[in-house]
Each structure stands twice: as C-alpha cells, then as structure tokens.
Design a protein that fits this description.
single chain; 482 residues; alpha/beta; six-stranded mixed beta sheet; 15 strands; globular
C-alpha cells in the first residue's frame, strides 16, 4: 500500500514533529453510546481499566489540562539511568538545549568511566554510579586529575543504580538501562512518587503485572520515551475516555525487510556469517546492538505490543503492526469514529525523549523540521509472521499474561546475547529457543497475584533454560522441553 501525502486530510505541524489525522470511510455503527467503551468490539473485553500512562480516563484528561496550564517555564530535576548509552547521551543533549528546564541530579552507567567523567564535569550531579568498583575507582581518579570542584558521591553496582534512581531531589527518572536490570530501580523510584520517563521496554514487558498497580497506588506519571509508544501517547492527547478503538504500531522491518521469507531462510542456511553481520546493522536508526538485532527478528515489535497493552490498556486483539520502511510515521491510533491519527517526524530518538521529560509541554528545539515534500511517498505493508515468528510468540505470551511475558523477555535477551557473542547459534535459532522456554514454562505459569520475586525468578529460570537449550542445539540436538 502506498499513501500519497496529498491524501492526508489534516496536517498539524509542530517545530519537530507532525501529527497527521486522516479519516477512513467505514459503515456507521449500528448503535452509539454516550459512554464510549474502548476497543473495536464495543465490549471492552481484554482492555485494562487502568493503563500505566496517563491516558484514556477522565482523571488523565484533567491532569493533562492542569499540567498544560502551568506553562513551559517548568524546571525538572532528572536522574538518568544509562547516561553513557544512546538514550543517556541524547537525553543530555536535550538538557543542553533547554538548560532553564532541566537539572541533572544523578547519573548511572556501565563501565565507561571516561565518558562518565566528562558528564560529571559538565552536569555536576550529586551521585555518579558505574557498574563495577574498578570503573568507579577509575572515575574517581579521572575526576581528581581533571580538578573536579563538585565531586559527586561515587557508587557502583546495583546499590549505585538504586541510589541514583531514588535520590531525593530528583522528580523524574529516565530509565535508559537495557534489559530487565531496569526493573528494580524503576519500582523503587515509583514508590518515592517520582515520574518515570520510560525508555526501558522490559520494565513493562516483564514487570507489567507489578508496575501497573504501583503506578496507580503511588499516583505517578509513566511517560513513554521510545519512538512508537511516544507517538501513540502524543496521538492520544485530547482523546476522551473510551475514545480509543485500536493501536497501530509501525515497524521499519529491520535489516531483512527487503528479503522474502524464502530468501531469508536460504541466506541463513547458505551464508550465516552474512546474516550475522546484516542482523546487527539497522537501516534507519542508530541504536544499541541488542535492539538492532531485536529489530531484525522483529521481536522488538512484539515486545512493543506487550508494552502498548500495559501503557495504554489496549487488548491484544486491538494492537496491530504494519511495516513502514521510511520510519516517518512512528505509530498511529484509530478512534471510535474510525479516524486515524498518526505522529510523524524524522527518525530521531531525541523527539520522543524530549516529550517524555517535558509532557504535556512543547519545548522549542533546534532540530531539523520535517519536510513532507522531500518524502513524496510513505509505504505500508503487513508483516509476514512466517518470516518473523517472534511476532506471534510475543502475542502468545501477552495473551497468556502473568509471568509468561517475563519468560519471553528473558529468553529473548539470552538468545540475542548468545547470537551476538558468536557462540554458533543461527539467526533462526533465536525464536526456537524462545518458543522452547515458553512451552516449558506453561505448567508453572502464574497469572494472578504476581509479585516481583515471581518475575525475577522466572527471568533467571528462562536465561538458564536458554543457555542449556543452546548447548543442546549446538550439539545437534532438539530444543529441551523440560
């Protein structure tokens, strides 16, 4: 399908993004209700009553208006988890562009002591944490050598991440940590009533059954910072409770989007080295290695389906995926009157990040405006689930609910890492390992009263399962079933 830009009925331009609304002709519903019910079925079946993002309720509408009327002269104090990664460095670019709006109180990262030292010298946080005691010691030495006049408290490990996430002066925590490591610090920050700029998919994918009740209990705002969910969140601004019918996630298609299923599978068999090289290179986005590979398998989109369910409350039957190679339409919603509202912008992660830390305000940013005439054509197509089996696995895990999504996520992380570590796994072994873990977990699946320990134990179990199953595969065996 090709969508001519001339067919877009309304274009609402902002300095850095465009919101596009176009109406799709459809038969009128047989009946209407003054109190609209979310979803395409008109029953609300499968929808969450209390999503984690501030949307789809009367209370969220009032909150959005209240915050909007405060004006854009706000000052937020940030704790940034993952400061030396792509999310972290781009968040700090936003701080540079808007120094009157943001202060950095805490930084945490991996082992890049050199870059952390530069960040500490520039932003003067109260806490700086790295992954290991050796990296923390190197940071201290570098700061002393640089003549640091505002030495932060230097910490390391999990305790250091928790200290950064819970620092008393910060009001917003940006979670740029990759993987399930972001779960605990996010929970502790929520308990201290800090807003969360969520750039860590796994927090909701693994921990949704725990996170959503906490967001409600402590009354915090969980604000999506990744491209697709920020797009949906932006599209939902002004949509009244019950007005959402469907969520449409767009996907670039990843590294293998131009190959048919047969071509991809043949390439996997005949030239696995070429597959490995191509799978870790993204055609549109500059992202980390793990996410780039997730894009190639399209597990990233499957994970985003689960995240969208928890963020916006949509049932899995009302969350669709479309391939959009240009990565200009970042996602869409369909409202009850069958209008589709889309958010457009260049493939620039700073755009969703800035909205997550400034919502509901629109800060003036020094970014390149979108030029529609330069684009000419936008294209969309359905994903081939046989080519991308990870998509169906994610829907299956989401519908199972409870601890199954934690198993899916951990199994994927483990298989993803092993493929990138070049231990001998093939590209098509990734979904096989994930499916094996999910099948083996069915007898132990817990759906009700899930707590953090349940999620963490399932996460650990799934990683161990994948490690054992991968060894079996390498030895020419089949995926373990127990």
């Amino acid at each position: 399908m090709k969508l001519s830009l001339g067919a877009l009925v309304t274009l609402l331009a902002a300095p850095t993004t465009l919101t596009c609304a176009f109406t799709v002709n459809a038969p009128s519903p047989k009946s209407t209700s003054l109190n609209a019910i979310s979803g395409s079925k008109g029953t609300g079946e499968g929808w969450l009553k209390r999503p984690s993002a501030p949307v789809n309720s009367e209370a969220s509408a009032r909150l959005t208006l209240q915050e909007s009327l405060k004006g854009s002269t706000f000052k937020k104090r940030l704790s940034l988890l993952g400061s030396t990664g792509s999310i972290g460095t781009q968040t700090l670019e936003i701080v540079d562009a808007c120094p009157d709006n943001f202060v950095v109180d805490a930084l945490s990262a991996g082992n890049n002591a050199k870059l952390m030292a530069e960040q500490v010298m520039k932003y003067q946080p109260k806490i700086a944490s790295l992954a290991t005691p050796e990296a923390a010691a190197e940071l201290r030495d570098r700061l002393k050598a640089a003549g640091c006049q505002h030495m932060p408290e230097i910490l390391f490990g999990d305790d250091g991440i928790l200290a950064a996430a819970t620092i008393d002066t910060a009001d917003t925590v940006v979670t740029g940590i990759v993987g399930a490591a972001g779960l605990k610090p996010t929970i502790e920050a929520i308990k201290l009533k800090k807003d969360i700029a969520l750039a860590n998919k796994e927090t909701l994918i693994s921990g949704g059954p725990v996170i959503n009740p906490l967001v409600e209990e402590y009354g915090v705002n969980l604000l999506p910072a990744d491209s697709e969910h920020s797009a949906i969140f932006q599209c939902l601004q002004g949509v009244p409770a019950g007005g959402l019918r469907r969520v449409i996630l767009t996907a670039s298609g990843g590294a293998f989007r131009d190959l048919s299923k047969d071509e991809l599978f043949k390439m996997c068999e005949e030239d696995p080295r070429a597959v490995q090289a191509k799978a870790t290179t993204h055609p549109n986005w500059d992202m980390g290695a793990k996410i780039t590979l997730d894009s190639a398998t399209m597990m990233n989109k499957g994970l985003e389906v689960i995240e969208a369910h928890y963020l916006f409350g949509a049932s899995y039957d009302d969350i669709d995926i479309v391939i959009h190679p240009q990565s200009i339409v970042h996602s869409m919603i369909e409202t009850q009157d069958t209008s589709c509202i889309a958010q457009l912008g260049w493939a620039d992660m700073r755009l969703p990040l800035v909205y997550s830390v400034s919502w509901p305000h629109r800060l003036k940013m020094p970014y390149r405006p979108l030029d529609l005439a330069e684009l000419s054509t936008l294209t969309f197509s359905k994903p081939d689930h046989a080519k991308y089996p990870c998509i169906e696995l994610a829907y299956e895990a989401g519908r199972a609910g409870g601890t199954m999504t934690a198993v899916l996520n951990a199994a994927n992380e483990a298989a993803n890492q092993m493929f990138r570590d070049d231990i001998g796994l093939g590209f098509l072994d990734i979904p096989k390992l994930i499916e094996g873990a999910m099948e083996a977990h069915k007898n132990d699946l817990k759906v009700d009263d899930v707590v953090l320990d349940d999620i963490l134990s399932c996460d650990e179990w799934a990683r161990q399962y994948v490690e054992s199953a991968a060894k079996e595969l390498k030895n020419g065996g089949k995926i373990l079933s127990v």
